[in-house]
Automatic annotation (TrEMBL):
Residues 1-20 are annotated as: Disordered. This is Polyprenyl synthetase family protein. Keywords: Isoprene biosynthesis, Magnesium, Metal-binding, Transferase. Gene3D superfamilies: Farnesyl Diphosphate Synthase. It comes from Nocardiopsis rhodophaea. Its cofactor is Mg(2+).
Length: 385
């Protein structure tokens, strides 16, 4: 079997493969540099994989390599880079290259998280394509192998996720081999990020199992699963590499917590009010999977406060129903507008944006980084139309 990404293997470590990236990547030199670091790392790893087993190389490595190289917005490495620059890290030179290479390892952590998340949520689509576990299951079906294709697909995806996490640690450590002091400073946020991500994922899983309606629950899940992992800790990581003082680190972490939480609220809105081309998955996917978002929690509370039993029934029955039609999803979306839940979440999103940018105002952060972080916050957190 030949899968996208096999060119990483065939060209190997001596000549990084010419894997096409998105148009946004081509337009952004920083994102392109992250992709190049990942290509070089995966090219080196491919040689050892082929020696171990060619079937694994064909079926697992190629799929993981394609997923990492071709997809993703590189949000986490970019935040880590601007954490480095905010603390006075150089824009060029050997140390800057090492810092960006270490930050690029965050994309492997992201692959680990997404492969696992899609298995747990039984998400069929990721980035506009079948999710990894679905593709592995399709391999099983097409070959007519023994056993349950879905179980095989989930198991294979979890193994690919494990490999991505192991390699993230390798890439991070190897990138900083000539900067041992910086590496040790960055160990704290690197470890904390991993722990927070797992705890946040568990809380998300448990909230669905318990049908938790408390608005505090999605806020805590967002804080640990999204904000800390997507923005706060990457910024902290980059700043630690540059030996930032505590004032800079605290300002960056406050910014990251607020902006990362806003990211999640934006994604919650996109699930019901976005377009598949924008989100890479079907509208209402999170609703069908039973995700207990702040949007739904606010809607349920307001329906109960109004004594609107019909609205409560519609929302309760929709959450976690995989058989919802697109018309059913539109009904829920319209109901949340009527209840004022959408507007409440959009107002909170705007408040988080203001809070995040204000946190940068008085901190001794390099002006170029401060300007860039403000620009990225306003560019990424937009009203969903």
């Amino acid at each position: 079997m030949t899968t996208p990404g096999s060119e990483v293997r065939t060209q190997g470590a001596l000549e990084p493969p010419a894997v096409p990236c998105s148009s946004a990547c081509r337009e952004d030199p920083l994102r392109a540099a992250v992709t190049q670091h990942l290509k070089e790392f995966l090219g080196r790893r491919s040689l050892a994989i082929v020696r171990l087993d060619t079937d694994f190389a064909d079926e697992v490595f190629d799929r993981l390599a394609w997923f990492v190289l071709e997809g993703g917005k590189r949000v986490r490495p970019v935040f880590a880079w601007w954490g480095w620059r905010a603390a006075g890290g150089a824009d060029d030179g050997p140390e800057a290259t090492a810092a960006l290479r270490a930050a690029s390892a965050l994309e492997l952590v992201q692959a680990f998280a997404l492969f696992q998340d899609d298995v747990m949520d039984r998400s069929a689509v990721r980035r506009g394509r079948p999710a990894a576990h679905v593709e592995f299951a399709n391999d099983h079906r097409s070959e007519g192998w023994f056993g349950d294709p879905d179980r095989y697909g989930e198991s294979a995806a979890l193994l690919a996720a494990d490999l991505a996490l192991v390699w993230a640690e390798d890439m991070f450590t190897e990138a900083l081999r000539h900067m041992p002091d910086a590496r040790e400073r960055a160990r704290g946020p690197w470890r904390a990020m991993h722990t927070e991500m797992v705890v946040g994922q568990f809380l998300d899983l448990r909230s669905q199992a318990r049908s938790d309606e408390a608005e505090s629950t999605p806020l805590r899940v967002n804080r640990l699963k999204t904000a800390a992992y997507s923005a706060e800790r990457p910024l902290h990581l980059g700043a630690a590499l540059a030996d930032a003082d505590e004032e800079v680190i605290l300002a960056l972490r406050r910014y990251g917590e607020a902006i990362g939480s806003a990211y999640q609220l934006r994604d919650d809105l996109l699930d019901l009010y976005g377009e598949p081309a924008q989100t890479g998955k079907a509208v209402g996917a999170d609703l069908r999977e039973g995700k207990r978002t702040l949007l739904l929690a606010v809607g349920l509370r307001r329906a109960r406060e109004r004594g609107d039993r019909k609205a409560v029934e519609v929302l309760d029955s929709a959450i976690g129903d995989p058989g919802l039609t697109d018309a059913d999803v539109r009904t829920v979306a319209d109901l949340l507008v009527a209840l004022g839940a959408r507007e409440a979440v959009e107002q909170r999103l705007g408040a988080l944006l203001d809070e995040g940018t204000r946190s940068l105002a008085d901190a001794p952060i390099a002006p170029v980084a401060c300007e860039e972080l403000r620009r990225r916050a306003h560019g990424a957190i937009t009203r969903v139309t």
